[in-house]
Amino acid sequence: MAQTIDCDKIKELSAKYPKLKEINYTYGTAGFRMKAEYLESVIFRVGILAGLRSRKLDSKFIGIMVTASHNPEADNGVKLVDPSGEMLEQQWESYATQLANAQSDDELINVIKSVISQNGIDESKKASVVYARDTRPSGPKLIAALEDGIKAISAVGENLGIKTTPQLHYFTYYLNYCEKPTEGSCDELADKVYYEKFSKAFQKAVGDNQRLSDIYVDAANGVGAPKLKDLAQWIDKLNDNIFKVTIINDDTDTRGKLNFQCGADYVKTGQKPPLALNLACEQRAASLDGDADRIVFYYVDEDGTFRLLDGDKIAALSAGFIIELVKTACLDISVGVVQTAYANGSSTAYLERELAFPVSCVPTGVKHLHHKAQEYDVGVYFEANGHGTVLFSSKALDKINSDGSRTTEQEKAIKKLQALTELINQTVGDALSDLLLVESILINRQWTFKKWNSVYTDKPNRLVKVVVADRQIFKTTNAERTLVEPNGLQEKIDKLVAQYKDGRSFVRPSGTEDVVRVYAEASTREDCDQLAFKVAGLVYDEAGGTGGRPSE
Ligand code: G16
């Protein structure tokens, strides 16, 4: 097959974005992520890769999201989305890494040619990409680099402007498998199809049930704020007495506020409410992260204790509700749950023992959970940090949507299941869709947060970040629960863990931040904190910790 890429055009545009020699880029847990000033060359090259992937997949749209999600405002990142709206196929992650690390323009051309020949790409095909960004100040400059990359590979790009990450995932799927827009801007259409789909599905899922109390949503001063506001208005148009939300931390204009002392990661890690939220007893609240792909819920008890309802609790709530509907409807559908090592021990025990679900544990990263969840008829996956969704296989959808004679009760259960399949964003974890999913289940059950929280009691747990000279020296196995390197460190951790009742701890390098993460749980809060900081201290000493030694 003749090579027809325009090497001169690629070189000319690439010269604007030289690779920084000293940096070795890796496609991590959620794409490339680091300080925004190091990313221009990477993003330019991601534009090229997206064009190649589109040609490989019969000109289907490939999605590109420019975001660093929960990371500090000064960071940014980029990830690719496959035509189905799911994460980029793993084989192509290595192409992304090779392209990002090509030192010279000639090397870049060689990598491009090698991707083309390895994949038998027909260069005469049209290439289509669709892209969006979050509200970070570095976004526009990076989008300009991306657009040059798209131009360099002669692809056609649709700019969606500012969107949540899950909106970009959903709209990539929509462009490929639903109606192709004939006129109007894709930016506006992407909002419209999203709000329409989820508001209508929510209406179906809640039926005639009574609304619950108002909910406060901390939007991390990110893109979730304007998008949730719009979505709530669409819901109001259908039924103005079912969902009352007050959005806080909604300032997307003031520099320095994104994810600062607010948002899902801050709340989950610190196990405390965000800035600007004084919660009354049992007031319902939730936090999104900077690109609205994760959510955690919380409230405070009569005695002022902060109660977190994290991804594990969302999994228990949704899996429990779905299996009940499946049983009522007498459908032959299996439901399984996928977690990571961060799942609280009590949640795994509850899911396996009380609800009798098969539960699998995979490495951190939605891409790993998503793939495992596809092995079940209905796969429920949530990371403890609030990132997740539910996948309905085509077998499950066929059964749920098939005709047949049914009792009224069975028919009602089927209708609810159908509504859930529409309400859940099955392309990726989506904070807004998950918010509506949780709210609709609680409305159907007429449950307070306190009642939801009581399904099982979390073991005290703690997450600590350790800054070390080189986090890449940490290598794990056993779904990240065991350290293989540095040599001998796991044995030391095991010895510490053995000193605590119901103790558990693991260490893994983050794939999105320049830190090593330490997780610990034990039977009491005091033990758990002590274990977490002792393990963090071990990591700090063994790996040449930089910055302060972790302490409570
Ligand atoms: C991303 C991934 C999540 C992962 C999180 C933290 O979330 O999509 O799957 O749990 O990073 O990953 P790590 O511990 O490797 O830093 P987000 O919300 O930042 O896109």
From TrEMBL:
Record's keyword annotation contains Acetylation: no
Biological process per Gene Ontology, one example term: cell wall organization
Pathway(s) where this gene product acts: Nucleotide-sugar biosynthesis; UDP-N-acetyl-alpha-D-glucosamine biosynthesis; N-acetyl-alpha-D-glucosamine 1-phosphate from alpha-D-glucosamine 6-phosphate (route I): step 2/2
Keywords, in A-Z order: Carbohydrate metabolism, Cell wall biogenesis/degradation, Isomerase, Magnesium, Metal-binding, Phosphoprotein
Full protein name: Phosphoacetylglucosamine mutase
Organism: Dentiscutata erythropus
Active site per database record: 69 (phosphoserine intermediate)
Entry function: Catalyzes the conversion of GlcNAc-6-P into GlcNAc-1-P during the synthesis of uridine diphosphate/UDP-GlcNAc, which is a biosynthetic precursor of chitin and also supplies the amino sugars for N-linked oligosaccharides of glycoproteins.
